[in-house]
Amino acid sequence: MSMLMSPLAVSPSEAVNETRGFRPRTAGLSGRIPRVLFCYMSVWTPEPMSSSVSPRLFSRKEVDRHHTKDSCWVLLGNRVYDVTGFLRMHPGGEALILRRSGSDISQEIEGPPHRHSENARRWMEQYYIGELDKDSVRDTQVRERRKPQEHTDGMEEQEELSATSRCSKVNFETDLVDWHKPLAWQVGHLREKYDTWVHQPVDRPIRLFQSEFLEASTKTSWYMVPVVWMPLVLYLSWYCYTTLAQEKTRLFITTNYSFMVHKYTFPLIFLFGMFVWSFIEYCIHRFVFHMRPPAHNYYLITLHFLLHGQHHKSPFDGSRLVFPPGLASPVIGAFYLLMQALFPHGLGLSMFVGGLCGYVVYDMIHYYLHYGSPLKGSYMYGLKVYHVKHHFEHQRAGFGITTTFWDRPFNTLIPDESFEGTH
Fold first, then answer.
1. 304 is in an annotated binding site
2. Residues 71 and 199 reside in one and the same domain
3. What one-character DSSP code corresponds to residue 51?
4. Per-residue pLDDT averaged across 93-122, rounded?
5. For 111-122, what is each residue's pLDDT tens digit?
6. How much helix, strand and coil, in percent to the nearest 5, is found in the chain?
């Protein structure tokens, strides 16, 4: 029989670690591991809880104490979740969860206004830490009963079961791949199971390669993108303007007809280059990143996973949300050669620098959509919600990142959710 957890018997952090089934490997490490890195450090390995071990019980008072950014717990029925590490990632913003800390969010999961996807429910299970003690639940219900009498305990238990049993957390010990080893060379063997597996996201880092050098080459900090590319954007912008100012750049419509490209048209050409990039961004995301590799082709599955599949499997791995400059260079170089081949030097280069700036904006927006907390109702808030739907529910639609413009004519726009109030 489980014992009621006393706050004096074990600290909340110890309870979270034990009930989540994580075992820290701290050999060779000194000092205290920061809490904020808990979900992302590869030194933590999952260890499933034995089915014979009863879940830890928390009193109502204990749950109510965790209502801050440093420690936020919520309930799903009588199940307790520590969602502290998820606050920053939540598409609706951290304030939305903080307002519901310590309370049952079953209605919010079911909707309206938004019914959470199966992947979102499965994701939620990664933060499960235990159960709410039923004795404390009954005491609270007696003191604060506000629902009609027909909502009996039996119905509440049935609702709790329907909300929590449809999805289960990923068991890393019995998953289709061995999470203790690099994944790059394993995923190709999943064959027809790969597509379903890669679109079931997890909140943990991915090790792609055994080689430290190769592994490091696939990661980069977000600020490296503007640090590397924005000086080039600024320099080429000045160069293009001065080149056009020489009034030697002419665009030929026919062999007998041409017109001068004036320096004052540079801002318009620059913006047009950004617009062109938005189309390239859409095409790369849809036709390259979301190609469907044949189930029998080991190498194409592996390539897809390295290009984009790993991002869908671990969408909040902060070290892989932007392209490393070294890997982005061939694509940028190809865009430069294309612009130079199609247009006169000054014009083509002006379009290229606009496209390069568009790429930097794209990578920064993509990072922000995963980790930012935009103001509700703002343009960025809408993009964040849209992109999260792409990750968790509509993987075959919603390919626009900086804008949904190209999703409209190509019929890949994620539809607005029509909620039918039936449970």
1. no
2. no
3. T
4. 75
5. 666 677 777 777
6. 50, 10, 45
189 is in an annotated binding site: no
Q: In Å, how far from its chain's centre is CA 209?
A: 21
Q: Is 285 labelled a binding residue? A: yes
Domain assignment present for residue 52? The answer is yes
On whether the CB atoms of residues 340 and 334 are closer than 8 A, the answer is no
**Number of independent structural domains in the chain:** 2
Does residue 345 have a known ligand-binding role? no
Together in a domain, 234 and 113: no
Range of the domain at 139: 12-164
Same domain, 156 and 197: no
CA dihedral 358, 300, 304, 282 (to 10 degrees): 30
| Whole-number percent of the chain with pLDDT over 90 | 48
For residues 136 and 214, membership in a common domain is answered with no
423 is in an annotated binding site: no
Q: Please give the Cα distance from 367 to 338 (Å, whole number).
A: 27
Contact status, residue 127 vs residue 85, Cβ threshold 8 Å: yes
Tokens 């000054």 -> residue: 346
What are the tens digits of pLDDT across the range 334-389? 999 999 999 999 999 999 999 999 999 999 999 999 988 888 889 999 999 899 89
Residue 218 falls within a domain, yes or no? yes
Residue 205 and residue 132 share a domain = no
Given this model, what pLDDT does residue 9 score?
41
CATH code at 31?
3.10.120.10
Mean pLDDT calculated for residue range 247-251 = 88
311 known ligand binder: yes
290 labeled part of a ligand binding site = yes
144 pLDDT above the threshold of 70: no
Give the Cα separation of 248 and 254 in Å (integer): 17
> What average pLDDT does range 274-281 have in this prediction?
95
Residues 198, 155, single domain; the answer is no
Q: Tell me, what DSSP letter sits at residue 155?
A: H
SS3 of 67-92: the string is EECCEEEEEECCEEEECHHHCCCCCC
Residue 391 is labelled as binding a ligand? yes
